[in-house]
Design goal:
The chain has four helices and no strands. The protein is mainly α.
């Protein structure tokens, strides 16, 4: 149970939500299998991990995420304008399709049944 809770906490820290969901479900199954008076500290750790997992979709978490992205955008400054080429490009003519070079091929006429006719 401790291992499942620690795996859930690690997954939440890494924002690997699918792994966190799986680890929390495993920890919940283990906690439900034990009597209520056993493993009380682990149940408290599990409840705290569930709260952290649930906070990923709250409006407060979204505001923090938006604040981080806008701060990162401001730090970079303006992007330089792309340089325009001064030379006018000429109209390109399409390349002709490549001609297949079949090379020197020899046909084995005997294998096709066109060999010499032998009459006996």
């Amino acid at each position: 149970m401790q291992q499942a809770i620690s795996l859930a906490n690690m997954a939440i820290n890494k924002k690997n939500w699918s792994a966190a969901r799986y680890a929390l479900s495993r920890a919940r199954v283990l906690a439900d299998a034990l009597p209520a008076n056993v493993a009380v500290p682990e149940r408290e750790r599990l409840a705290a991990a569930r709260k952290r997992f649930a906070a990923r979709n709250t409006p407060a978490a979204k505001k923090v995420r938006q604040a981080k992205t806008t701060a990162a955008k401001r730090a970079g400054g303006k992007k330089p304008a792309p340089n325009k080429s001064t030379a006018k490009s000429t109209a390109k003519q399409p390349k002709p399709a490549p001609v297949r070079d079949l090379g020197d091929r020899f046909i084995n006429r005997a294998a096709l049944g066109y060999g010499q006719n032998r009459t006996t």
